[in-house]
Amino acid sequence: MNNLIHKVINAEPYPFAFDPNTSALIIIDMQRDFLEEGGFGAMLGNDVSLLRSAIEPCRAVLDAARACNMLIIHTREGHRPDLSDCPQSKKERGNLSVGIGDVGPLGSRILIRGEAAHDIIPELYPIDGEPIIDKPGKGAFYQTDLALILQNNHIKTLFVCGVTTEVCVHTTVREANDRGYEALVIADATGSYFPEFQRVALDMIKAQGGIFGWVANSDAVIKALA
Ligand code: TIU
């Protein structure tokens, strides 16, 4: 049994206490499909360059978490090649000319597991021992084995970063909150295609005394992990 370590991060709405031995870093959907031209995010009409500011803070937190042997979990949104796990509603949403399962400008099928566009960007590529959660939905708990992995690793607190803030990060943090986890969202290591949603999504998490969790910047998290 590890000795308890008590660390505190200067976060909003109030200081966030955690033990690295019972904490995990979850990096949400830092995939080419969301961050590069020709992927799913671009197909939806978004300016994907707006997400790229999250890469360097994610990388810095990833390095710090690796250095202190914290559990690191990567997620990817996507579907089976036969789309049997993709709801019809998701396939039809947006009435796109090129949609989920079609070959996009990156030369690979949009949001399909095993395709190049579905994979994690090279800057943040997982290393051996870091679980990858392939999820069919926006939330990382929905129809995945994330809960089991967290439970088996005795995890109580989560550091969450990735994209997009108001969609997959928010959904995952809400799911985590309802399951009793304390979650801190690393503000500058998240990104949205909509600057106003980025601000409001972070405000929503920390409002009402931390209704879903805490918010802090990567430098505060890295300082606490050092
Ligand atoms: N469209 C959008 O903002 N996000 C997603 O579809 N998925 C994730 O957030 N990963």
Describe the model.
- The protein has helices spanning 32-35, 40-43, 55-67, 88-92, 146-152, 165-178, 195-210, 218-225; strands spanning 7-9, 16-18, 23-28, 71-77, 132-135, 157-163, 182-191, 214-216.
- It has 226 residues and is an alpha/beta fold.
- Helix content is 31%, strand content 19%.
- The two termini are 22 Å apart.
- The chain is built from 8 helices and 8 strands; from the N terminus they run βββαααβαβαβαβαβα.
- Helix 3 (55-67) runs parallel beside helix 8 and helix 6 packs parallel to helix 7.
- Bound molecules: tricarbonodiimidic diamide.
- Tricarbonodiimidic diamide binds next to helix 6.
Topology (SSEs and partners):
Layout: E1 7-9, E2 16-18, E3 23-28, H1 32-35, H2 40-43, H3 55-67, E4 71-77, H4 88-92, E5 132-135, H5 146-152, E6 157-163, H6 165-178, E7 182-191, H7 195-210, E8 214-216, H8 218-225
Parallel strand pairs: 3-4, 3-6, 4-5, 6-7, 7-8
Antiparallel strand pairs: 1-2
Helix pairs in contact: 3-8, 6-7
The chain binds tricarbonodiimidic diamide (TIU).
Residues 29, 34, 44, 77, 138, 163-164, 167-168, 193 line the site of tricarbonodiimidic diamide.
